[in-house]
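quick one, two chains, predict together pls
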Amino acid sequence: MTLEEVFFYFLAAGAIVSALLVITRRNPINSVIFLVLNFFFLAALYLTLKAQFISIIQILVYAGAIMVLFMFVIMLLNLGDEKRLTDRVTWKQIVAIGLSLAFVMQVLYIVGFGETADMKTMSAKAVDIGTVENIGMELFSYYVLPIEAISVLLVAAVVGAIVLAKRKFD
Amino acid sequence: MIPLNFYLALSALLFTIGVVGVLTRRNAIIVFMSIELMLNSVNLTLVAFSSFLGDATGQMLVFFVITIAAAEAAIGLAIIIALFRNKQTVNIDEINLLKW
């Protein structure tokens, strides 16, 4: 096994284990911390795919901004441990897990035998694509209209969040 | 070199973990975190395809998905705060105002 494979398997296992811990912890604070860990593993996986800019943005925006927001809300609401997590398993949950397993089996079957099975090596252009320079050139030339639209959407979302969380509507 | 399939399989597993979290957990904030897990697994697929096909479009889409996720988290958490103020709970079984 090459060093590259060792590194990939380590990151993949870390991402899966931390994701499992996110959905099984009783205390939401622990979930947030494992979700941040998951984001760091994913950022490292983006680096193995030669996407430096997305990797940095992942840590800055997701682990830095969004997770702080989550942490802030959990501490604001002062949520304790969840009482019933395992002692009352409903049939809905069993069906949900069964259907999810069926889903992942189907996707893995498609991944294993579909057209993507032939793609073994990364494109030679991959190194140039992920740089800040190239992303910036693309964003402000071909994707200039979407980025303006998304900035308007972000402003609308922030204003909406403030209005929603305000105590009283005047 | 790691084949593309490995990244896609990892992404499928992470997505399914997110789906299980949404369907089984009752805490609204943990449901939200599971949605973030699902968004991230799709981002991984997009970046993997972008690198293997040599096309920048996938990474542009990831950039927009991250922006949407930020907006969604802000709005969603504001809704959770408003709900908690009215109902004193974030258990989604007890928030059934729109259920008939």
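Chain A has a mean pLDDT of 88.
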